[in-house]
Amino acid sequence: MEFLTQLMLPIVVSAVVVFILSALAWTVMPHHKKDFTGLPNADAVQATMRQNPPAPGQYAVPWVAEMRGMEDPAVKEKMMQGPRAYITVVPNGMPAMAPMMAQSVVFYLIVSVFVAYVSWHALAPGAEYLQVFRIAGTTASMAYIMATVPESIWFGRPWGNFGRQALDGLVFGLATAGVFGWLWPR
After folding, report:
1. Residue 181: other Cβ atoms inside 10 A
2. Residue 99 domain boundaries
3. Peptide bond into 62 cis (omega under 30)
């Protein structure tokens, strides 16, 4: 656990820097404005859902509880007729930004702890900036980018959305690399 005491400053600073960059990516930069779009009949869909409101969670339409249910001709027909959808239902009301922001910071701290762990075991104190940058940047970029790939493969998240997220992840990884290189123990 020596890496935590030796690398606490780059862990915290990189998490704060990535939090700021993430906030800018989602509030100032225009590239995520294409990530979501409205349904052509959104009011009707919302009104129908209000009649029997689902609890917050993730849902699939059509839904099959077990994979063997996919062999049922009625299920096959529903799949072919469509639409098929994966729906995330969140609690009613305005989003609670403070808890979500806090959770983001915790996530960025966890990524930075893993970056610190890998970097500490790959490099010695006094390593050159570019060596630290390479290891920390690769580790951080992997964490910020690769985890979202299965959502596009399995759950229909548009690949364009993944591409924009990957761009953010690369920026976050490079920023983390820069902070670790800058604050690496000499």
Report:
1. 21
2. 2-38+95-183
3. yes
The token duo for 16 is: 């704060």
pTM reported for the whole predicted model: 0.89
Q: Collapse the DSSP code of 107 into the 3-class scheme (helix H, G, I; strand E, B; otherwise coil) and give the result.
A: helix
Residue 68 lies in a domain: no
Provide the pLDDT for residue 138. Answer: 98
- Exposure b/e, 66-87, CB count within 10 A at least 16 = b: eeeeeeeeeeeeeeeeeeeeee
Q: Is residue 100 part of a domain?
A: yes
What is the per-residue pLDDT across 60-102, written as a single tens digit (0 to 9) for each?
999 998 989 899 999 999 999 999 999 999 999 999 999 999 9
Least Cα distance to 177 among 19, 2, 17 occurs for 17
Domain for residue 128, yes or no?
yes
Please state the separation of Cα 9 from the chain's center in Å: 24
